[in-house]
Every structure is written in structure tokens, then in C-alpha cells.
Amino acid sequence: MELPYAEPYKIKVVESIRKSTRREREDWIKKAGYNLFRLPSEQVFIDLLTDSGTGAMSDNQWAEIMRGDESYAGSKSYFKLHEVIKDLLGMPYFLPTHQGRAAENVLFSALIKKDDIVPGNSHFDTTKGHIEFRNASAFDCTIDEAFDTTGIHPFKGNIDLQKLEEVFKKYPEEKIPLCIITVTCNTSGGQPVSMKNIKEVSALCKKYGIKLIFDAARFAENAYFIKTREKGYENKSIGEIVKQMFSYVDGATMSSKKDAIVNIGGFIALRDEELFNKASVYNIMFEGYLTYGGMAGRDMAALAEGLIEGTDFQYLESRIGQVEYLGKKLKEFNIPIQEPIGGHAVFVDAKRFMLNLPREHFQAQTLAVELYKEGGVRGVEIGTLLADRDPITRKNRYPDLELLRLAIPRRVYTNNHMDYVATCLANIYERRGELKTGYKIVKEAPIMRHFTVELEKV
Ligand SMILES: *Cc1c(COP(=O)(O)O)cnc(C)c1O
């Protein structure tokens, strides 16, 4: 028999979490205005709100916290991190930042101006925010297959080369400061981008003289999918695949809270000295001096170790294996999910789940609240609440997909926790016919309403 995967670590420290009663949860969620963002974490049993900054650091990372050098300039921990980034990504220049969006802020300050166009595969919301804040536009060139939740395609994060070339032909070179590939593509469900696609996008960008940048938050999970799904890479190491991926781009912004398994941190990696010099000015202005940029020395040291651990094959196999484990459990219960299952989260298709609930009652949010009431599990709505209102008509925008995202923190929960989550959803699925009424808005902010919105039962 072939041996199954098992986590390449054992547990040294544990943190207690407590089950509550349904009565307590019904009371708490009502007080929170039926908005899961407003719940104190102590009222949550299993927290699948996000995989960002929620991972468990290793003993070696905690040791690095003690070894961190807090010198303002030229910290030992800075040089350690620089060596790891050079080794792993093959990028000679780097700037530390306090998280991913800060890296975007610094790099885009150096690159993007008013009326520019930034094409890419479904840009992450902070990325899009930082582009639009500069009165520029993000153009989504993801392949059409990404928007069909049932169609099977191994690399749904891929960029459609034809769509991209149309943008390059339509606008002059000086209006397109960069093209962004997000690996894996968070917005389309943690879906990977193939090496072939990265290589072809890179060639097209070179042909038109456009810079290519990775939004690299989940670059290691992307490399794992290339190894396991793309022909010709099955015998390459994750390290070799990562190096090759980065060889096709001019730089990257990184949220270290994802694949680098730290609780805070980010960086910019660059190939070109001139761009590094330009970005350095903004880094000093917005983040901090070049050798710490918004991070404590100890945090840079833990990040250097996290990058090494986060690109270990056995770790990635168990990490992505756990996400797949939950997805497969849900499928066994016939619960409709987005396929193929992504790298960091399972997305439940609330539109197909809800038999009798009108969309005006917020299908995915209703499912998220039901899941919390059922077992104290916190997921997040990716649907109408998130899509906000049309800025002109002020009517609710109804997106094509109503999803409940269950994001799995790294090295935090066991597969027993996954079984528990799946059973909660199976119980709700059994009585889904009875879910005929949902929620209505009583209070909302003019933008980004999902974080603070207050709801009540219809
Ligand atoms: C999380 C994330 C960001 C932003 O990073 P923060 O560390 O949250 O500021 C940018 N892009 C992608 C793809 C992300 O997942």
C-alpha cells in the first residue's frame, strides 16, 4: 500500500478552545447584528474566517523571535531575511514592509499614476483598492473557466493571453506600468496559475515592454499545484519550481501572513536596482528605514524561517491535503462546493445550497450565520454583502456567485476539526428546505459595508 501523507510536525503547545451552547450562540450572534466580523473570538469554536496571519509558528520560528536583532539600521535579522529571499526567489533586492497591502502601497507609489491600466488575473481587493486609489484601473484578464464553479480545470487562475494582448494593443505602453499575476489567485478561489501560463504571460509582457509582478501571497501553494498537476514538474523540487516561477517576473509584493506562516509582515522583492531605489524612497516615508520597514527585527527573523518551512514539500502536502480533506467530506454529504478545491479554502456554493431562500435575504450570509449557530464555526460571506451597492443607483449588486468561504489556518486545526465543520454543514443541508427567510440590513457603512454591517431577521 502507498503510505498516506501525515503532518511533518508534532504538537508542543496547545491553546484551549471551548464549545458553547446553541442558546449562547443565538444570543451572541444576535448581539453582533448577525455579522460574524463583530463576534469576539472567544465566542467562536473553530475560526475559518481567514488564513491570513492565523497560522501557528514553529519552535524554530519562536527561537528566531528570541534571536531577533532590534538594531535600527543594518540588523542581523534583516540580512538573514535578505539571504533567504535571494536564495529562494532569486531576487537580488528587497524591502521589508509591515504587511502585503503596505508592499502594494510602496511599489505602486513608485509605478502607478492617474489613468493607468493594470491588467492581471482577478486582482485581490487591497490590490485593486491601491490601484483605484491612484485613479487608475485594474483589468481582469482571468480565463473564462474560472467563473464556472463546477467546471474542472487544473489552473483556473490562468491569464487569458488573448484578453491580455488586447489590453496591450489598446493602450500605449506608458499607460500600462505593470501587469500583476496573483499566485494563487485568491479572488477566484485560491486557484493556481500554471508555469506554462506564467512563462507565456512573461513573454507577452516582454514583447510589449511591460513589467510583470507577482502578488505572491501564496506562491508556495501555487508551486505545489504546479508540481502535482503540471506535466514535466512532478520530479522537480518545490525550491526549483519557485525559482523558475520567479525567473519570469520583474518583482513581487508579498503578504507574509499567508505562505510564510507568520502573524504579521510583508515585503517587496525586485530584480532591478533603479526600481528598488525609487521604491526605497516611499518605503522610508510610509514604512520605515530600509533595513526594517515596518517590522521588528524578531519578526524579520521569524519570517526568514517561515519562508523556508512554508516551501517544504511535506508541509505543503499536509496543508493542501487538509483543505482537500474538508472539501471531499463536504462532497460526500452532497454539499455543493466550488471545484477544483483551492489551496487555502473551501468555498460552499450557497446559491445551490439554499432551496427556498430568495437572494434578497442574503443566501451566503444566512448560511454563514446558520453554521455559526449550529456549531460555533466562523466562515465568511463572499456574496451580496461583500459586493456592496452600485455607487450610482445605490441598489444591491448581486454577484454571479454566492459563496461561503471556509479558510483553513496553517498548522492550527486537526482533521477532527474538519470532520466537525463538515458535520455542522451536513446538518444544515438536511434541513435546508426549511430555510425560507434570511436577514435584512438595518445599518451599513457607505463602502466596505461587510465589516461593520448590522442585520436583523426578516
Ligand atoms: C492578503 C493578501 C493581500 C494583502 O495582504 P495583507 O497582508 O492582508 O495586507 C494581497 N494580495 C493577496 C493575494 C492576498 O491574499
Characterization of this structure:
It is built from 16 helices and 14 strands. It is an alpha/beta fold and 458 residues long. Helix 7 links the parallel strand 5 and strand 6. It is globular. The structure holds pyridoxal-5'-phosphate (PLP).
Question: What's the structural blueprint in terms of helices and strands?
Answer:
Elements: H1 22-31, E1 46-47, H2 59-67, H3 76-89, E2 93-97, H4 100-111, E3 117-120, H5 125-132, E4 137-140, H6 161-170, E5 179-182, H7 195-208, E6 212-215, H8 219-229, H9 238-247, E7 251-255, E8 266-270, H10 273-286, H11 297-310, H12 313-332, E9 345-349, H13 350-353, H14 363-375, E10 377-378, E11 380-382, H15 384-387, E12 403-407, H16 415-430, E13 439-443, E14 454-457
Parallel strand pairs: 1-10, 3-4, 5-6, 6-7
Antiparallel strand pairs: 2-8, 7-8, 9-12, 11-12, 13-14
Helix pairs in contact: 1-14, 2-11, 3-11, 4-5, 4-10, 6-7, 8-9, 12-16, 14-16
The chain binds pyridoxal-5'-phosphate.
Would you list the SSEs in sequence order as H and E? HEHHEHEHEHEHEHHEEHHHEHHEEHEHEE
Strand content: 5-15%
Helix/strand/pairing class, anyone? alpha/beta
Mean pLDDT: 96
Number of strands: 14
Oligomeric status: single chain
Helix content: 25-40%
Q: Rough shape?
A: globular
C-alpha Rg (nearest Å): 22 Å
The name of the CATH architecture of the largest domain is 3-Layer(aba) Sandwich
Low-pLDDT runs: none
N-C termini distance:
54 Å
Strand order in the largest sheet: 2-8-7-6-5
Question: How many separate domains?
Answer: 2
The distinct bound ligands, ions and cofactors come out as: pyridoxal-5'-phosphate
Q: What is CATH's topology name of the largest domain? A: Aspartate Aminotransferase, domain 2
